[in-house]
Amino acid sequence: MNAKLDSTIANRPVTRQTFDEVLVPTYAPAAMVPVRGAGLDLWDQNGKHYLDFTSGIAVAALGHCHPAVVDTLTRQANTLWHLGNGYTNEPVLRLAKALTEATFADRVFFCNSGAEANEAAFKLARKYAHTKFGPHKSRIVSCLQSFHGRTLFTVSVGGQPKYTEGFEPLPPSIDHIVFNDIESARAAIGDDVCAVVVEPLQGEGGVMPADPAFLKELRELCNKTGALLIFDEVQCGMGRTGDLYHYMTYGITPDILTSAKALGNGYPIGAMLTTSELAQALSVGTHGTTYGGNPLATSVALTVLEIVNQPAFLARVKEASAKLRSTMEKLVADYSQVFGQVRGAGLLLGLVVTDAWKGRSKDIQRAAEANGLMVLIAGMDVLRLAPALIVSDEQIAEADRILRLSLDQMIKAAA
């Protein structure tokens, strides 16, 4: 019998080594393999427990295996999975209504990831500009050190050469400005620009919050030139900063907003939100996706949205955010030889290493993991914390304890 058809294959033992044997090496995952999760708790193949302060890169906003989400997915899995875009379905209609009622948007396009949401946003911006102004208005302006996805289009917009090297020739008519630099924006945004895209809180770029004055200037420049302002809230949206979306914190409304990650709490879904006027540019046949807006994903996302978009829930996120920041600021003060500052917003914080520890954020991450705490990095000089929005004060204190233990061990080893 062909081994690939062996019905027992699902029960075969697999290890971290299996990754190196059968998967394309686009990642270098940790040595341990998580097998079970609940809330912010994870266990690996050996039964070791970890406190998860990554939430799958700001995805599992309600923690692992949230009972309400599991219940929704189970019920929908026994009802209807997929139809194809020749038909609509009830869950997608309910989710679209809920998102438009909760935000500035009138229309939503659903897809499967943040990259696809941004791809749709960029295509919409160009299509709208070509239709209204002509093909000369096609340039897209983004920020250096931003991250908008891994498709060739979105990674080109991202402004990080390490992600585009070797994939040339890249899509043309894309320029980059310095994040939070108003003069850089003024110099770049002219009448030939169809869209300006920005993360109100850069994630991969080092957990950098946008200055209010910078975002205000981008809004005014877009109004002046007829460009569309796109907010990429794939990582910072869906309650992570204490508001449903971060544009609400600033009081600056974009023309297009992209959302994903926490929207499905781990079930793949992305969304592009926009106005009725702009949405008309993507008429029948101009864009699409096979799986986008399927009943499984949209039913899960609606449950997540209904839980997160409650005043009491968001108030607790703000409370937990203040607790995490004050705790981390104390840690930074106590370990000033390692960390120089805390930056970010809400429950997405970055601890920036000092010059003496430059390039060592990955080492700190590994040390913390060895002691049972999962954290992220944002480049080699920033340790990134993105716990689930349901994090407790006790879990914040435990993360602080493990980080301190790990730093003490590293400092002692270096002595």
Automatic annotation (TrEMBL):
GO terms for cellular component: cytoplasm
Methyltransferase among keywords: no
Gene3D superfamilies (alphabetical): Aspartate Aminotransferase, domain 1, Type I PLP-dependent aspartate aminotransferase-like (Major domain)
InterPro entries, alphabetized: Ac/SucOrn_transaminase_bac, AcOrn/SuccOrn_fam, Aminotrans_3, Aminotrans_3_PPA_site, Class-III_PLP-dep_AT, PyrdxlP-dep_Trfase, PyrdxlP-dep_Trfase_major, PyrdxlP-dep_Trfase_small
UniProt GO BP: L-arginine biosynthetic process
Note on cofactor: Binds 1 pyridoxal phosphate per subunit.
Reactions mediated catalytically: N(2)-acetyl-L-ornithine + 2-oxoglutarate = N-acetyl-L-glutamate 5-semialdehyde + L-glutamate
Major localisation: cytoplasm
E.C. designation(s): 2.6.1.11
UniProt keyword annotation of Transferase present: yes
GO MF annotation terms: diaminobutyrate-2-oxoglutarate transaminase activity; identical protein binding; N2-acetyl-L-ornithine:2-oxoglutarate 5-aminotransferase activity; pyridoxal phosphate binding
Subcellular compartments: Cytoplasm
Entry binding sites for N(2)-acetyl-L-ornithine: 150, 289
Known cofactor(s): pyridoxal 5'-phosphate
PTM annotation (N6-(pyridoxal phosphate)lysine): residues: 261
Annotated pyridoxal 5'-phosphate binding sites: 114-115, 147, 232-235, 290
Pathway where it operates: Amine and polyamine biosynthesis; ectoine biosynthesis; L-ectoine from L-aspartate 4-semialdehyde: step 1/3; Amino-acid biosynthesis; L-arginine biosynthesis; N(2)-acetyl-L-ornithine from L-glutamate: step 4/4
Sequence similarity: Belongs to the class-III pyridoxal-phosphate-dependent aminotransferase family. ArgD subfamily.
Other remarks in the entry: May also have succinyldiaminopimelate aminotransferase activity, thus carrying out the corresponding step in lysine biosynthesis.
Protein name per UniProt: Acetylornithine aminotransferase
Annotated organism of origin: Duganella fentianensis
Organismal lineage: Bacteria, Pseudomonadati, Pseudomonadota, Betaproteobacteria, Burkholderiales
Gene: astC
